[in-house]
Amino acid sequence: MTTAQKIAEIEAEMMRTQKNKATSYHLGLLKAKLAKLKREMIDSSSKKGGGTQEGFEVSKSGDSRIGMIGFPSVGKSTLLTKLTGVFSKIAAYEFTTLTCIPGVLQHKGAKIQLLDLPGIIEGAKDGKGRGKQVIAVARTCNLILIVLDATRPMVHKKIIERELEGFGIRLNKQPPQIEFKKRDKGGITISRTHDAPRLDDETIKAILREYKINNCDINLKCDATDEDLIDIIEGNRKYIPCLYVMNKIDDITLEELNVLDKIPHYVPISAFLEWNLDELVERIWDYLDLIRIYTKPKGLEPDYNAPVILQRKFSTITDFCNKLHKSMIKDFRYALVWGASVKYNPQKVGKDHQLLDEDIVQIVKKI
Ligand SMILES: Nc1nc2c(ncn2[C@@H]2O[C@H](COP(=O)(O)OP(=O)(O)OP(=O)(O)O)[C@@H](O)[C@H]2O)c(=O)[nH]1
Ligand SMILES: [K+]
Ligand SMILES: [Mg+2]
After folding, report:
1. Is 171 helix (H, G, I), strand (E, B) or coil?
2. What string of pLDDT tens digits covers the 367 residues of the chain?
3. Does ipTM top 0.95?
4. Edge-to-edge, what's the strand order for the sheet holding 143-149?
5. How far is the CA of 70 from the centre of ligand 3 (A)?
6. How far is the CA of 48 from the centre of ligand 2 (A)?
7. How many CA atoms lie within 13 A of 76 on its CB side?
8. Domains in the chain, ordered, with CATH?
9. What atom in ligand 1 is closest to the CA of residue 271?
10. Residues in contact with 31: Cβ distance below 8 Å, sequence separation at least 6, in sequence order
11. Nearest-atom index, ligand 1, CA of 93
């Protein structure tokens, strides 16, 4: 039996199994088996050179990277051209785009790499078409735009989500708060610092047995599920924010548009007629969670035209220095900061100081 067949068999068994207290153990076990098989599939595809086909090796550049994922002909290339000015072939037939085409979206002084990708269809994660490579690129992005065609079935959204999930991508989700430490001996210790009624000890032990883990400490710090635990054990999950871009709204009625409006993380647009693209760019900016830091050379005005762009999660003075130049932190003495992150303007701060959007920084070096 091939890995794909084994996966299909387990998925079928999961469909047959009713979800209740008595079967949660069995379902947890099936999910663990499934996760292992999917990992095998991903590993084998990357060994066979799955990610290295021509046109897919676009190197990272700029301050952040966005990937556009969607079915064929939903308007990804049209959107790339409108947002970045880069030409990517647009046509009414499916699979017009066959490689990865990068453009640069400039906003608030940031240079954001936007990737146009071939359309994916169902079964991508199982090796159909170029889907595997497309999703491998998606794993490297800071934001995913799932581009949908408002005139086509909304089940496409679910299908794409499932494809991405199968490749270890978790959309708009934080890593589950589960502490997991493997040990050499001592058996399995389970503690709970948060209620987690959906995941009982028996299921946890079954999953661990499936992974042949006999000694470890587990602490549940959130309302975890069996899938969360598997994600933590597998360890290679990518937690990526996602916007659902509903394109071609020029082709549907207002009533239809109102129904679509209920989808979370959603932006309606018409790429072709350039409707609502400003709103899309604003939402992209919010979801990327970037901040702008202005540099101030001694005795000069800050340079407001060329901010240093940092991810909000990584925005200490050290991060700022590293973004400017690798060796900068070696000569660092202290920094002067003006702006929202300090009480006095300017204030002398050290390497660990946390910066905020639109702060002004002057680095003072050792002499
Ligand atoms: N009505 C309407 N048509 C659009 C819109 N955006 C794109 N299209 C049309 O949709 C068709 C497909 O557009 P593409 O940009 O090639 O779509 P794609 O997603 O890149 O397609 P593939 O590369 O084949 O996956 C073209 O005929 C476009 O003119 C839109 O906002 N409204
Ligand atoms: K097309
Ligand atoms: Mg295209």
Report:
1. strand
2. 888 889 889 989 998 988 887 888 889 999 999 989 888 876 665 554 444 455 677 889 999 999 999 999 999 999 999 999 999 999 998 888 888 999 999 999 999 999 999 888 766 555 555 778 888 899 999 999 999 999 999 999 999 999 899 889 999 999 999 999 999 999 999 999 999 999 999 999 999 999 999 999 999 999 999 999 999 999 999 999 999 999 999 999 999 999 888 889 999 999 999 999 999 999 999 999 999 999 998 899 998 999 999 999 999 999 999 999 988 999 999 999 999 999 999 999 999 999 999 999 999 999 8
3. yes
4. 101-107, 110-116, 64-70, 143-149, 242-247, 266-268
5. 9
6. 28
7. 32
8. 3-48+176-234 (no CATH), 64-173+238-288 (3.40.50.300), 290-365 (3.10.20.30)
9. 31
10. 14, 207, 226, 227, 230
11. 24
Residue 103 near residue 80 (C-beta atoms within 8 A): yes
Cα of 328 from ligand 3 centre, angstroms:
42
Pocket, ligand 1, Cβ cutoff 6 A: 70, 72-78, 90-92, 94-97, 118-119, 247-248, 250-251, 270-273
- Cα(173) to centroid of ligand 3, in Å? 28
- Ligand number, closest to the Cα atom of 90: 1
